[in-house]
Amino acid sequence: MRTRTNLTLATLFFGVFVMGCAELLVVGVLDLIAADLRVSIAAAGTLVTAYALGMAIGGPILTALTIRMDKRAVLVGTLVVFAVANLVPLLVPDHGVFVAARVLAGAVQGLFIAVGFVTGMALVPPERAGRAISVIISGIAVSAALGVPLGTLVGQTVGWRGSFLGIILLSVVALVATVASVPSVPRTGGGVAGQARYAFAPRVLAVLLVNVLVFAAVYSALTYIVPFLNGVTGISGALISVFLLAYGLANAVGAFCGGRFADRSAARTLVVATAGAAACLLALYLAGAVAPLVALVMAAWGLFVGGMVPSLQFRVVSLAGPGGALASSLPGSAINVGIAAGSLAGGVAIGGSGVSAPVVTGLIIAVIAVPTAWATGFLKPPTARAAELTPYVA
């Protein structure tokens, strides 16, 4: 039984990894797509925005619409739609169609992650729920650290269509693995109306606010980290990849290990990790001119950010109680809102005050996030009666 559960979690990890690669791949081949479709870089950049909006808005909507369905069937259907959404741009070379396909791909990724959490947590004892979450969500971190650089290399070598073809093939592999290894998980909890009462309770929204603040702080600085490394740290070219790899690998390690801390105390983990991320931003600003220290700080930053994600997810689901199935899609939406807000804030800052300004902006947001995370530590799940109704009991 333990082996079957581990195989299921590995399959869900792989599915999230493939989707994470597809989400971020466009960034590495943006110039190729713009040239091929004869649009500006800015227009091609809407492919990134479209995907994020698909996840943030479409993910919860699709989760609500499929909430009464068998989870295995939803996962299989999601992978089929995802593969088709990535195939369409290869067959119809039109920017508008591409944008629409990216919205759809983002929406089904949000659905896959939400249903993946429900499935994984249903197969393990409650005391191992955090670890199940960390295995699944680490697929995103590993895709950012390894999958995207490899996909970008393929795209730069054989064209962006070659990278997307690789995503389609990997999606098919994930589909076959899901059919073969993921067991049937019947519908959980009540209908959408009943779950929404718990999923959108003030205690849940408070933790989602922490999500938004933390990732706004991170991406205010991270979006513009290359200009910072160029202008302040004094590095350029291939060496920048080393610094980004340090962050990416540490982020993946943090995501893997964060589940154990979530199982021990998700609330405390959130406070420590948020404070750690703020400290890293401060250190980045103060020691930005010392390259070895910057590399160490970026690695620590990645650990804290990756390590808090399982706790964020765990807190939202546990505080939602009987609304956990619907609430499982909300952290991804909150994270994408934070990413969009942080990137915008960092862009405004760098435009007016120079390359260090996004780091300062991120630090200010992080300072606000720390007491917010501390305050949410006092929030409690629904009553014992409601807790008995939660769908996450194996």
TrEMBL record:
Which terms are listed as keywords in the entry? Answer: Cell membrane, Membrane, Transmembrane, Transmembrane helix
Q: One Pfam family of this protein, by short name?
A: MFS_1
Q: Which residues cross the membrane?
A: 12-35, 41-62, 74-92, 104-125, 132-152, 164-183, 204-226, 238-257, 269-287, 293-312, 333-353, 359-379
Glycoprotein as a keyword of this entry, yes or no, is no
Q: Major location, coarse class? A: membrane
Can you provide one Gene Ontology molecular function annotated for this UniProt record? transmembrane transporter activity
Major facilitator superfamily (MFS) profile domain span: 8-384
Is Lyase among the key words of this record?
A: no
Q: Which InterPro entries match?
A: MFS (IPR011701), MFS_dom (IPR020846), MFS_Efflux_Transporters (IPR050189), MFS_trans_sf (IPR036259)
Could you name the domain of life of the organism this protein comes from? Bacteria
Q: How does it sit in the membrane?
A: Multi-pass membrane protein
Q: Which PROSITE patterns match?
A: MFS, PROKAR_LIPOPROTEIN
Q: Which GO terms describe its cellular component?
A: plasma membrane
Localisation per UniProt entry:
Cell membrane
Q: What is this protein called?
A: MFS transporter
Source organism: Nonomuraea glycinis
